[in-house]
């Protein structure tokens, strides 16, 4: 395993982290007696495999159902000084309720402190305000730090880049958990801002949100050769020194194996990556055209500016992936979450696009004349059964990293 300084925390962070939202029994709290023995045995085997390969950062959240409770059965048996334990709690208007939730998390984990506490899902200005206003959630965290129950505080986000950068600019956080991968590099300016503030940078879900790379289309496999898509994406992310760790949302002990192959390439990423990056770029140009790939994102409206709340940038991005790389399954999964994801994945899909006048909001786009038709075609290609966020589903027994 390789380790990187996790920003101003000074923690030696492994370049891979063990994420805790895939191996738990249920998304809802249940009595410990209701957790099947095989589920608990699988979780404990996964944690032990993680530690065996040098991944000592164990990351979970209060919103991950039984994850904390099940971790509480094994973490106290392990050498505490060798672990970096992170949990995350969503900010709320009532800071006392936030404190009660933290106490519940610590009780489930059966620890006297956590190394990292993330304010989970600062996705909107309102949620940021819940954290930073006088008497808000961050004041609670400071008290917990004074009591020795929390070492460092960070935040996780699925929000727009401007909200992420506003949160970083407060200089109140030691680290950040965010999305950034080869297929979606929108948040790079936020990572640069985090680096200026000497914050630790943790990339969320590089294999699932980064393209369902555990079941890639053959075209993507061919374009990433000689690496697998998982190893390519891991290497792409870790080739940037501003990135410190990638989450592996392991459902079982074997889920670390493909990621670990990345370690052999880290010291010569500059030799391995350029030919693959060129192949991927040219493949997209071949199918979508050079002008489109260079300019498709220019002048697109925000949700607030768009009739019907259509998330036009995301719709066109998913269309690009489906057509350029045959990533249709991934694009469908994300597309059909639109309208169901709340502030975690905001905006509507294109089921009403034919009824909306989009020309005024597209006035700054060089492709204004053709985007409405492209959105209709995107809905025809990707639309289907609506999909809920995982936290609203009943189980996580599916194999998703």
From TrEMBL:
One Pfam family this sequence matches: Aldo_ket_red
Domain NADP-dependent oxidoreductase: 19-209
Domain of life: Bacteria
Alphabetical list of InterPro entries matching this protein: AKR2_Oxidoreductase (IPR053135), NAD(P)_OxRdtase_dom_sf (IPR036812), NADP_OxRdtase_dom (IPR023210)
CDD domains assigned to the protein according to its UniProt record, in alphabetical order: AKR_Fe-S_oxidoreductase (cd19096)
Protein name: Aldo/keto reductase
Species in which this protein is naturally found: Stenomitos frigidus AS-A4
Species classification: Bacteria, Bacillati, Cyanobacteriota, Cyanophyceae, Leptolyngbyales
């Amino acid at each position: 395993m390789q380790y990187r300084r996790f920003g101003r925390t000074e923690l030696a962070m492994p370049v891979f982290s063990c994420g805790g939202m895939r191996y738990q029994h249920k998304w809802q709290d249940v009595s410990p007696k209701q957790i099947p023995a095989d589920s608990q045995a699988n979780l404990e085997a996964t944690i032990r495999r993680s530690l065996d390969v040098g991944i000592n950062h164990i990351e979970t959240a209060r919103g991950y159902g039984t994850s904390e409770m099940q971790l509480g059965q094994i973490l106290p048996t392990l050498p505490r000084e060798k672990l970096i334990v992170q949990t995350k709690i969503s900010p709320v208007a009532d800071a006392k309720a936030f404190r009660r939730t933290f106490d519940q998390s610590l009780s489930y984990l059966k620890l006297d402190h956590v190394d990292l506490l993330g304010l989970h899902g600062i996705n909107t200005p309102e949620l940021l305000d819940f954290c930073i206003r006088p008497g808000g959630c961050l004041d609670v965290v400071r008290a917990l730090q004074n009591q020795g129950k929390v070492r460092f505080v960070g935040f996780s986000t699925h929000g727009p880049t401007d909200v992420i950068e506003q949160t970083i600019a407060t200089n109140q956080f030691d680290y950040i958990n965010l999305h950034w991968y080869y297929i979606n590099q929108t948040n790079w300016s936020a990572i640069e801002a985090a680096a200026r503030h000497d914050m630790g940078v943790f990339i969320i879900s590089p294999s699932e949100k980064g393209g369902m790379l555990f079941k890639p289309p053959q075209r993507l496999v061919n374009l990433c050769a000689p690496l697998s898509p998982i190893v390519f994406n891991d290497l792409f992310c870790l080739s940037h020194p501003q990135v410190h760790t990638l989450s592996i949302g392991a459902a079982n002990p074997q889920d670390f194996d493909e990621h670990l192959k990345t370690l052999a390439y880290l010291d010569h990423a500059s030799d391995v990556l350029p030919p693959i990056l060129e192949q991927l770029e040219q493949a997209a140009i071949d199918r979508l055209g050079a002008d489109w790939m260079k300019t498709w994102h220019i002048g697109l409206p925000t949700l607030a500016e768009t009739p019907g709340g259509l998330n036009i940038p995301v719709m066109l991005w998913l269309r690009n992936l489906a057509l350029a790389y045959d990533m249709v399954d991934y694009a469908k999964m994300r597309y059909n979450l639109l309208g169901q994801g709340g502030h975690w994945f905001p905006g509507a899909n294109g089921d009403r696009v034919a009824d909306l006048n989009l020309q005024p909001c597209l006035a700054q786009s060089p492709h204004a004349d053709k985007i409405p038709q492209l959105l209709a075609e995107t809905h025809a290609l990707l639309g289907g059964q609506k999909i809920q966020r995982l936290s609203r589903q009943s189980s996580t027994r599916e194999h998703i990293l």
